[in-house]
Structures are given as structure tokens and as C-alpha cells.
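=== RUN LOG ===
request id: a7f3
mode: sequence -> structure
chains: 1
length: 225
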Amino acid sequence: MIGTLVNAAAIIAGSLLGLLVRKGLPQRIKDALMAGMGLCVILIGLKGALGTGSEMLVILSVVLGGVIGAGLKIEYRLDRMGQRIQDRFASGGDSTLGKGFVTASLIFCVGAMAIVGSMDSGLRGDHSTLFAKSVLDGVMSIVLASTLGPGVMLSAVAILMYQGGIALLAQAVAPYLTNRVITEMSAVGGLLIVGIGLNMIRKQHIPVGDLLPAVFLPLLLTLVM
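=== RESULT ===
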């Protein structure tokens, strides 16, 4: 868990720094940063998505994940959670907490480093991968928080639950997290990250929160297919 705790702390520290920088930026610079970050996020997502070895598996994961997520109203619940926090701790303005939380959580949680690093941490006590990821996430959180606001900081909770859960359950899940499963989970997650990037630069909203269950479906579909 040490690696996960360091990762979460790096995100919180980076977010705080990003919020400090954000206060002194003119709106035109914030808009430019948002567009630029959107393009960078799309690049990150494409890099992961193009690593798939089975396009059909990705399609099935996204379709089934969307059905499950929409049925559970994940996007709606995330927005409500962000709105409640906004109402409690801030006054005025539109809530961007839900958007910042979903965007940052996907970027930080989805990918081979999160899975493999957590496995190494739980099985062998080797935190080096998560330490390296902490540096990357810390830098990214500075930029994200400067454009998306305090919701980015909440992704530290998602990191604790996701990576911490994998680390604690490493012995049990190790047989199922094969290289192929990790690759396909990263590919599906990469595709969702592309959706996040498009949401950052376009007015039409893609309900990425409702698609979150798709990230975990390759665990089952790889066995079936």
C-alpha cells in the first residue's frame, strides 16, 4: 500500500499547486490550456487503445459496459456527488467537480502501470513502478487542476480504492490479470480516455462515466472469447 499512498499524495500535492496557479490565469489562457490538455488526453487514450489485440473484445466491452453503466446511472451519480460537494464547500458557479473527478480518475487509474505497479506492490513489496507513476501523475495533476479545478484532487480517493484494492487482493487476482487481460483493459480504458479528451474540447458531451464498467469487462470476456 505504500506505493499507492505515495501516488495519492502526489496527486493531492499536484492538484493543490495547480489550483494555486489557476487563480492567477486569465480566462483566455485557461481556455487554451483546456483545449491543449484535451488534445494531449486524446493522444494518451489513443496510445492505449491502439494496443489492443482484439477490436471485437473492445467493442463488446464498451457496449456491455455502457448498458451496465447507464443502468446504474454512474454518470448521473458522479455529477450529483460533485454537485453536493460543490454546494457544501463552494458558493456560486457551475460544478466542475464531477468532470474533474472522472477525467483525472480515468487518466490516473487506467493503464498498465496502475495494474502492474499495484501487483508488484502487493505481491513482492516492490513499489518502484508506483513511485515512477506518482511523479507522472503529480505533474499531470498540476495541469489538470489548473484547468478542471478541485475535482482532480478527489481522484486520489479513486487511486486509493483501485490500486489499493489490487495490491491487497494481489494473491487472489494474479492468475486472472494475464498480459492479455492487462493489455485489453488498458485498450478499453484508452478509448474512454479519448472520450474524456473530446469532452474537454467539444460542447457535445460523451457520458464517459456510464462507460466505466467497460474497463473491467475484459477480465470476463477474455476468458469467454
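=== NOTES ===
The mean pLDDT is 83.
The CA atoms of residues 50 and 187 lie 7 Å apart.
=== END ===
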